[in-house]
Amino acid sequence: MNAKKVIVDCDPGIDDSLALMLALSMPEIEVVAITVVCGNVPVDKGAKNAKLILDWMGRTDIPVYIGEEKPLHRPYIDAMDTHGQDGLGESGYLPPEIQCEPLDAVSFLSETLRTQSDISVIALGPLTNFARLLEKDVQAFCNIQEFVSMGGSYRSHGNCSPVAEYNYWCDPDAAAAVYEAYASLPQLKDKKIHMVGLDVTRKIVLTPNILEYMQCVHPVWGERIKRITRFYYDFHWKQEGVIGCVINDPLAVAYFVHRSLCSGFDTYTAVETQGISYGQTLCDTYNIWNRIPNSHVLTQVDVKSFMHLFLCTVLKADPHQAEQVLCQILTKEALA
Ligand code: BDR
Ligand code: CA
Fold first, then answer.
1. What does the alpha-carbon distance between residue 165 and residue 280 come to, in Å, rounded to a whole number?
2. What is the distance in A from the centroid of ligand 2 to the CA of 37?
3. Which residue from 27, 54, 204, 242 lies 20 to 30 Å from 313 (Cα-Cα)?
4. Whose CA is nearest to atom 2 of ligand 1?
C-alpha cells in the first residue's frame, strides 16, 4: 500500500493526543513529522505531550518540531481550563526525556515542502505555523498537497464565543490569512481547505459506554484514554451538560483517509478577525461575494463508522464485535 505522507500540526491537547494515536495506527498514513503550535497549551508543553504519545506508540523515530509560541497579533489565550494544566487532563503521565528537533517548525515546513509536493497537512490547532510559512515561503505553502484543518463552524454554535471555534478564535488572523491564500493565490486555484468544523466534530462524543468498551477490549490503551479524558468529561458536563466528551481532532485524521465518513460542500469561507465575532467562519453558501471557493466545508458525519474505525484501529477491537457493541450503545443513546 502507498501510504499518504502527512505532517500533523497540533497542540496536544487531549483530543489532539487521540488524533495522534489514530494517525500513528493507520497503515494508510505515513506521519513524516509532527509540528507543534501554541494553542490548548504553550508550545513546549504541547511538544512534550506529542513525545509522550510517540513513546507510547513506539514511534520516537518521528521528529517533533516546535512552532510558534504566540498568535500573529492577538494575545495568546490557552485552553488549559478544558485540557488541564498539563494538557493531558491532569492525568499525571510524565513525558519522556526526548529532545525535539533543533530546527523550528516553520523553517522545517519551508525546507521540506519547498522540494516535495506529495506531503499533506492535517492541522489540529490554530493555524499560526502556516500563516508564518505563508509569510516566509509562499511556494512551500503552495506545495502542500492537501490541507485538512480542524476548525471553524458553519451552522453550529461556537465553543469560545457564540460563533467562534477555539482554533480559529485563538489566532483569527492566521486562519484568515490561510483561507485568503486559498482564495487568491493562482498556484492554489485547484486546491481547497477541508474544513472539519464543529458541525461535524461536535457529533463525535466519547461516551462512558464507549470508554467502558475500550477498557474491555484493550485494558492498557483503555486505561490511558480513560485517564487523559477524565478531566475533559468533567469540563463537558459543567460547560455543556454533555455526559462524555467531544473529541474533535481525531475526526480530521479519519476523514483524511476515509472521505466517505463526511460530506459537505465547496464554498468561499472568510474568517472574521475583529469585533465581538472574531474567529467566526463566514461560509458564503449563496455565493453572494462571488469569490473563488477556497474551502470544502463538512456538514454531515457518519458517527458510527468513525467510532468503529477508532475502536478497530487504535484499540484493535474485533470489527464484528465492535459493530454489534456500537449498534447497542448508539441506538440506546439515540433513544435516551
Ligand atoms: C479544537 O480546539 C481544541 O481545544 C481542540 O484540541 C480542538 O482542536 C476544538 O475547538
Ligand atoms: Ca487541537
1. 7
2. 9
3. 242
4. 166
